[in-house]
Amino acid sequence: MTPADLSLTVLHAVRRAVGEGALRAGTRVPERVGIERPRPGGSGDWATNAALQLAREAGMAPLGVAQVLRPRIAEAEGIEHVEITGPGFLNITLADRSRHALVRDVLAKRERYGHGDALRGRAYRLVHPGDVRATVLAEAVRALLLAQGAHVHDERQDDPRHDDPRHDARPETVTLRPLPAAHDVAALGPDAARWALLRPAAHDRALAPDGLLVQSEANPLFTVRYAHSRARALLRNGAQLGITPAYEEDVAAPRLLAALGDHPAVLEAAARHRAPDRVARHMEATADAFLGFQHTVLPLGDEKPSAAHRSRLALAEAAGTVLAGGLALLGISAPDYL
């Protein structure tokens, strides 16, 4: 179950509570509610502040709203437990079958996993000064917005079409003006150059070329692409051993499963905030979690292949898929061999 799925589950619980009279009639149901990892002192897989968000309009204390919503969320498929913490945070624990569904969802959607329709019906005009960093940033932001269902116009500030009345939509104008690159990154090649320009936030300096072509763990771009190539290598090696990836039993890889589960929310947030650097950071976290897990995937020595190995291989394939999809949105290649 993705954060987007959980948001819909919480909204459904709110609608039920209003319809059943447990929340004040006329309480406006928001378009979306925030889903995040539990804060310190929290528990479970995910948390939402929906009760705090609704309290004033419902005419109740946040804790009271949380008590109304908790059983209605807990009844939803894929939810194992819901706990109230603090002033009214709802902490949600997923059932094991939801982790199975997560991996299967990634493998079914492939590189489009995390794409959605959160911004469907919205139109944007991206305006930027046209220097190299602004152009690359606009390309990445465009890809992220399209991945969330938006319609995008991409124009330079000196483009004569900027005020063209023939644009059929009424797009929101978004001006992208990142801090210009202080270094010539062209010699790095397209992949490293894009990482240098996109990895820092737009208001921070672009990365200096030093180290971006080094093949070591000190280079985050190499680490991310290496993790993808390792995932592909495990699939090739698994095929040689006759192991077909299939997520059949729960795998003890909480960091990696959390990273995969976070992916849709990261892509949506990156699109809403026009911040490809969020995707880059998430790719680093996913790669780090995968590289800590990869050594457990295939049988060692005389160990015979089992359902556990099939599940681990499916999780490795899912990790590689997420890494490839994230890099593609940044316009960076994900080679199978590195």
Described by strand count, sense and barrel closure, the largest sheet is: 3 strands, antiparallel
Helix content: 40-55%
Q: Which overall shape is indicated by the principal axes computed on the Cα atoms?
A: flat
Strand order of the largest sheet: 1-3-2
Q: What is the CA-atom radius of gyration, in angstroms?
A: 22 Å
Q: Provide the residue-averaged pLDDT.
A: 89
Which assembly state applies to the chains in this document?
single chain
The count of DSSP E runs of length 2 or more, i.e. the number of strands, is 6
The N- and C-terminal alpha carbons lie at a distance of: 32 Å
Strand content: 5-15%
From N to C, what is the helix and strand string? HEHHEEHEHEEHHHHH
Secondary structural class: mainly alpha
Give short descriptive properties of this protein.
3-stranded antiparallel β-sheet, single chain, 9% strand, mainly alpha, flat, 338 residues, 3-stranded parallel β-sheet, 10 helices
